[in-house]
Amino acid sequence: MEEEIFECQQCGYCCHGETTVSLTPEDLSRMGDYLGLPEDEVKEKYLRITDGVIQMKIVDGHCIFFDDGCTIHSGKPWRCSQWPLHPSILADEDNFKAINRSCPGIKGEVGYKKFCEVLRRILDHK
Ligand code: SF4
Ligand code: SF4
Predict the structure, then answer these.
(1) What is the 2 CA–ligand 1 centroid distance (Å)?
(2) How far is the CA of 9 from the centre of ligand 1 (A)?
(3) What confidence category does residue 125 fall into, taking pLDDT thresholds of 50, 70 and 90?
(4) Which atom of ligand 2 is the closest one to the Cα of 75?
(5) Which domain of life is it from (predicted)?
(6) How far apart are the CA of 40 and the centre of ligand 1, in A?
């Protein structure tokens, strides 16, 4: 079903930039479990905390966990797991256009209406 509207091109654009998604306490705990490290050590080695907002460190212009793809798979933050099939697409076509511009794996050519139909089915099954 997903391939009707999205096929990842492994371009890595979503893991590049000077900021990353922010982490929730649950993300932090899952990441610690995945890495087999206590949260303090995860924070020190991999995260940056600014005004209470926790994000991954950026190294050479990309997330510290990026190395030809995400290297922490099931340990990644939930906001990364949502990308790019984000529910906000259903609420506003402008979100669809913005995500379509940011992610070459999005099959924008199917059109907004069809895209939403498929996305709704995908999200209902999650
Ligand atoms: S930007 Fe889209 S196509 Fe590129 S790696 Fe991220 S999800 Fe895949
Ligand atoms: S945790 Fe993984 S998916 Fe998320 S930004 Fe870092 S490398 Fe990309």
Answers:
(1) 14
(2) 6
(3) confident
(4) 1
(5) Bacteria
(6) 30
Q: Say yes or no: CB of residue 104 within 6 Å of ligand 1.
A: yes
**Nearest ligand 2 atom, CA 79:** 4
Q: What percent of the chain has pLDDT over 70?
A: 100
Ranges assigned E (strand) in 6-95:
47-50, 53-56, 58-59, 62-63
> Cα(45)–Cα(33) distance, rounded to whole angstroms?
15
**For ligand 1, mutation pick of 63, 103, 106, 107 (most atoms within 8 Å of CB):** 103
**Contact criterion met (CB below 8 Å) for 10 and 104:** no
pLDDT at 10: 87
Which residues are within 8 A (CB) of 77 and not within 5 positions of it... i.e. 6 or more apart? 21, 22, 23, 24, 27, 31, 56
